[in-house]
């Protein structure tokens, strides 16, 4: 395994690079977000995962703009809210996210969840494709899609190519984001993405703190003199994923990024993985195509 570092980046199908460690801001109160994101920047995170639904895009954008560093040094993600998918809604959301964040472009825009029906998903995707062509968004992707939704997206991309004038006109799927950790490994989705070179972001990488004290986790933390949270972030990085740990606590923010002075063995990575399918967030991946 190539050695990992805080500045490790992954090349996306879009041609842009994404910093492998991200910083999540779900449930970070808007009034605290600028301070918290600045804490993260101070310890070396440069990638922030927000969403329209988190109501803190403005504070994230402010932290980036006020950093004094060139915009290109940061990676900012937002998401089209679920349950209102469609061409116009997604097109409007790109404009809203640009206005809220005050940024000239968004690095990554995801469809937050597949809810919205087939036509809604296709329309939303088309709006994101156009946003890339207009230079408003650099890379696009989806979140919480099951394999059935991913297969459908490939069909939509082919249809859009035919409708919009050829290869590439259907857009490029660069990133998928799912709840992934040792108690929810999602092998089917991970394999689907690996086959196509789609980067996988892992949300709730700390399992929202619900698994502290699990025997293997505790043992590995003891062996390496690291916290259980650090072992989980390391597991995700070594799987090749892009973990998005969230914290509002300065010490934890620092600890969650202090994961580059130890390496799990391949056996330990495998040993951590359970046979359980136990998501702790929502699970739209299992929803039918007409939901
Ligand atoms: N696409 C989606 O549908 C979706 C869904 C969920 C999440 N996400 C993204 O993924 C990010 C992370 O997921 P998440 O927020 O669900 O869960 P998570 O990162 O697994 O866990 C966050 C929880 O763990 C605590 N924590 C953080 N670091 C810790 C440490 N070192 N030791 C002990 N506790 C620690 C946090 O508390 P404190 O803040 O008090 O430290 C918070 O309660 C989100 O912020 C969001 O960006 C996306």
From TrEMBL:
<feature type="binding site">
    <location>
        <position position="112"/>
    </location>
    <ligand>
        <name>substrate</name>
    </ligand>
</feature>
<feature type="active site" description="Proton donor">
    <location>
        <position position="54"/>
    </location>
</feature>
<keyword id="KW-0560">Oxidoreductase</keyword>
<dbReference type="GO" id="GO:0016491">
    <property type="term" value="F:oxidoreductase activity"/>
</dbReference>
<dbReference type="InterPro" id="IPR036812">
    <property type="entry name" value="NAD(P)_OxRdtase_dom_sf"/>
</dbReference>
<feature type="domain" description="NADP-dependent oxidoreductase">
    <location>
        <begin position="27"/>
        <end position="274"/>
    </location>
</feature>
<dbReference type="InterPro" id="IPR018170">
    <property type="entry name" value="Aldo/ket_reductase_CS"/>
</dbReference>
<protein>
    <submittedName>
        <fullName>Aldo-keto reductase-like protein</fullName>
    </submittedName>
</protein>
<dbReference type="InterPro" id="IPR020471">
    <property type="entry name" value="AKR"/>
</dbReference>
<dbReference type="InterPro" id="IPR023210">
    <property type="entry name" value="NADP_OxRdtase_dom"/>
</dbReference>
<feature type="site" description="Lowers pKa of active site Tyr">
    <location>
        <position position="79"/>
    </location>
</feature>
<dbReference type="Pfam" id="PF00248">
    <property type="entry name" value="Aldo_ket_red"/>
</dbReference>
<comment type="similarity">
    <text>Belongs to the aldo/keto reductase family.</text>
</comment>
């Amino acid at each position: 395994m190539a050695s990992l570092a805080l500045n490790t980046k992954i090349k996306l199908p879009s041609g842009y690079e994404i910093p492998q460690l991200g910083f999540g801001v779900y449930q970070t109160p808007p009034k605290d977000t600028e301070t918290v994101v600045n804490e993260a920047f101070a310890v070396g995170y440069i990638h922030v995962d927000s969403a329209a639904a988190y109501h803190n895009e403005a504070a994230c954008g402010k932290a980036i703009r006020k950093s004094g560093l060139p915009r290109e040094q940061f990676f900012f993600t937002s998401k089209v809210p679920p349950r209102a998918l469609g061409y116009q809604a997604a097109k409007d959301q790109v404009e809203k996210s640009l206005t809220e964040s005050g940024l000239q472009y968004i690095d990554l825009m995801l469809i937050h969840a597949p809810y919205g029906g087939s036509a809604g998903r296709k329309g939303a995707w088309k709006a994101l494709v156009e946003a890339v062509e207009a230079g408003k968004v650099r890379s696009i992707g989806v979140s919480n899609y099951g394999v059935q939704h991913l297969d459908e997206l490939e069909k939509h991309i082919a249809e859009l190519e035919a409708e919009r004038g050829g290869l590439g006109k259907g857009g490029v799927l660069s990133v998928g984001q799912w709840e992934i950790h040792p108690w929810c490994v999602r092998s089917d989705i991970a394999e689907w993405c690996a086959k196509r070179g789609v980067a996988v972001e892992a949300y709730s990488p700390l399992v929202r703190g619900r698994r502290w004290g699990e025997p293997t986790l505790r043992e590995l933390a003891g062996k390496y003199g690291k916290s259980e949270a650090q072992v989980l972030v390391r597991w995700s990085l070594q799987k090749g994923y892009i973990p998005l740990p969230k914290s509002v606590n300065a010490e934890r923010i620092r600890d969650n990024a202090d994961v580059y002075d130890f390496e799990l063995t391949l056996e330990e990575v495998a040993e951590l993985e359970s046979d359980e399918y136990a998501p702790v967030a929502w699970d739209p991946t299992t929803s039918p195509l007409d939901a």
